[in-house]
Request: fold
Amino acid sequence: MNLPLPATASFWSRLLLWAAPVALLAGCSSDAGSGAAVALPTGHYEGTVAYQGTELAAVLELRETGAGQLEADMRFPQEEGLSFPVETARYAEPQLLFEQDGTPGGMQVSAVREGDFLRGVFTLDSIRTDFVWVRRGKAQPRPYQMDTLQVPASRLALLVLVPTDTLSNHPAIALFADDTHQAAARLRADQLARQGFVTTVVAVAAGSPADSVALQAAAATVQALRRHPAVDTLRVGMWARGAAAAIAVPAATLAKPRAAFLVLENVSVTSADEARPLQQLGQRRVPVLGLYAAADTSLNVKDSARRLRNAVGGRRGTQVRIFPKANARFVLPGRTSPDGKWTWPAAAPGYLTAIEDWLK
Reply:
């Protein structure tokens, strides 16, 4: 497993896909001869999506960030675990299309603008329901801004999300993920930035052992993040999901100074060999938060959680949690009760604030 050194075209294509505002394909005006630009459907839209009689409040923020560019956020105030930033969108007057990136069976929205209304179809897994959302003023800004982090040692340039609150220093997390978990890492970075963390996502290659170059590059990323002017230098940690732990775990103690904490999500620990690097975290006093989704079928959750807990020991600050009934995305699937009442999907209780609560 290696970090991309130097930055390659494929890395930059992934970075631009996330860093740049979503692409907008604007349709032509109905007056073809005038060449007038089509007004974008920007604004703050509110409404609901309903299924089997159960309504879920929905908010869509659409912002113009430049000529021919549209940025969006799909929010669900009652179930923030379903909210997501929109990474790809298409608009051809009067139709707006977007979907949740990198999530099989994720949300899809197909809408037609009718004055101050968006009317269309909302899809989630096998659910398909009509909606009408009304524009109620200007779109609210995101609670963070984007910056670029240079990592001289590895020649990486990473996108950084910096909260726009009144604090001068923030805890920071570098999120390491391979291609399989990039979408999950980007969503987690958005969630944490909304909670006041400075975040950046680091792409790592899967399928090969971590070598010294990759580990040094990962450690250099933590050190570069520590130097960002918005970051609290004493609270810079790392996050990894799945196979990316092979990079994050040893790099956490390699960084100078070492990472302040390490968060591991759905990391498989199936043998003594896999557990051995984790023991170094306990010996070097790096607090570990292990998070497991009980219904994730890609690994043996109970066995991995037990091995992780034994490896890092019972040192102060270390914690391993299993979220009952949660799928691999730490979401409780939607379901119909015996009396026929529908319950919308929701984040596993406590998951969204797990890192923030743990660090208090």
About this structure: Residues 4-35 have pLDDT under 50 and may be disordered. The CA atoms of residues 1 and 208 lie 4 Å apart.
